[in-house]
Amino acid sequence: MTLEDSLRSLSLDYLNLLINGQAFSDVTFSVEGRLVHAHRCILAARSLFFRKCFCGPDPPSGLDPSGSRINTVGSPGSRSNVIPVNSVGYEVFLLLLQFLYSGQVSIVPQKHEPRPNCGERGCWHTHCTSAVDLALDTLAAARCFGVEQLAMLTQKQLANMVEKASIEDVMKVLIASRKQDMHQLWTTCSHLVAKSGLPPEVLAKHLPIDVVAKIEELRLKSSIARRSLMPHHHHHLHDLTSAADLEDQKIRRMKRALDSSDVELVKLMVMGEGLNLDEALALHYAVENCSREVVKALLELGAANVNYQAGPAGKTPLHIAAEMVSPDMVAVLLDHHADPNVRTVDGVTPLDILRTLTSDFLFKGAVPGLAHMEPNKLRLCLELVQSAAMVLSREEGNVNATSTLIYPSMSDEHNTSSSGSNLANLNLDSRLVYLNLGAAGSGQMGSRMDEEDDSNHNNQRDHHAMSRHDPTMYHHHSHDF
Q1: Are 294 and 344 in contact (CB under 8 A)?
Q2: Cβ(458)–Cβ(387) under 8 Å?
């Protein structure tokens, strides 16, 4: 047996002690209402924090964000002492103990496992928001409990994640690295944010002002370095800067016009000034900030791509409407051929977003950021997008059937059964969510309102299944946002 094999065997032996729960355990922690059994000698040997906790005259503070100390329940010599842990979650605490017992741990969540903040089914969780959040929580726990080896391991993991993560998650890691003085991770994230091209006013919504100033410093140094390497391009760079300033002015004028519902001015800007509505993210802005009528008028100009994917995340206007839980916006976008199957960079569709919101609402009772969300609106949004996906599936099935008649294939039976099962799953999923949300809505809004809304939504669903693009089908749901 080699030295490596011997160490691996030792690591597994210690880890089995943790897995076996109460075997030889002499300390118990309570985390999120669940008991975790451990061994004082191992924890004290591996962590100075636990050594002070078990051996010092006063237990160390810092586990609870409010500043409360670790308290034991029972007498000092009792084997039934329970130590409440309030600063970290159950999953993160187990990862911490796993590292203390075995010297190794996998911070990446299990692939294809349903996770909070990840709406993609079958995600590998290598760089999604859920994976980044777990790594950040693990890093905070490692620093809190004084396990520097785990902190360094997590820092390296985060450095790999941010290379492919969304810019929102990169900014989240940037703030954490600044708070915990992790200079290497700070450097990596700050350069990624500087290269993102996001203007300072957007960065200021997510980052402290002094951090935004440092990002702008990096950009300035980078541009100066480029100019010093290419002096003969000075005039060209000046021209590019002037053109960029002109485009920024156009976009600001466009937003003011949309805010005042002046779509005619936007039309004149498109025709006379060459404004590109897609690059200006006009439709995304209108969906998020304007009324249904403005969005409809903008779409009817015919100059905006309803499926344009914007920003580092690659969201379409339909993604934004789904996040807002706005049936009016969802309806008008679908009426103008928005594709419910378009995926973001992380592989999330508008249908995934609505399913995640529905799941959170049913099992948690409220959705963060949407505390006033009405269950009937969520149900209607889900029905509209679900119906549109079913229509597209049928259309694709008809096209495949036609091509199969022209070019016969050996796998006809398999394709037919597969598409049929997909449609069956969509129908079943729609009915189940419809019933569940109906029950949730009746508890909040009263049975009479729920019955009236149910009949309206049933009529709406029938109309949508027959004709997806009828421009009058959503008229009675019109609201201004």
Answers
A1: no
A2: no
What is the phi/psi pair of residue 445, to 5°? -115, -5
H helices present in 145-233, as ranges: 148-162, 167-179, 183-195, 200-203, 209-229
Whose CA is closest to 350, among 374, 376, 375, 326? Answer: 326
* Inter-residue contact 449 to 375 (CB < 8 Å): no
pTM comes to 0.46
Torsion sign over Cα 197, 202, 208, 210: positive
**What letter represents residue 420's amino acid?**
G
Do the Cβ atoms of 385 and 350 come closer than 8 Å?
A: yes
Whole-number Å distance between alpha carbons of 225 and 108: 38
Domain definitions of the chain by residue range: 12-105, 108-229, 345-477
Name the CA radius of gyration of the chain, rounded.
28
pLDDT digits (tens, 9 = 90+) for 430-477: 444 444 444 444 444 444 344 444 444 444 444 444 443 343 333 333
What single-letter DSSP state applies at residue 187? H
In angstroms, the Cα distances linking 195 to 72, 175, 189, 216 are 50, 17, 10, 10
Q: CA-to-CA distance for 213 and 219, rounded, in angstroms?
A: 10
- Residue 301: C-alpha distances to residues 79, 104, 294, 457 (Å): 74, 58, 11, 30
Q: Which CATH class is domain 12-105?
A: alpha beta
Confirm if 335 and 317 have CB atoms less than 8 A apart: no
Angle at 85 between CA 147 and CA 365, to 5 degrees: 120
The tens digit of pLDDT for each residue in 405-423 reads 433 443 344 444 444 444 4
Query: Which of these, 169, 120, 104, lies nearest to 349 by C-alpha position?
Result: 120
Is the pLDDT score of 303 beyond 60?
yes
404 has pLDDT over 70: no
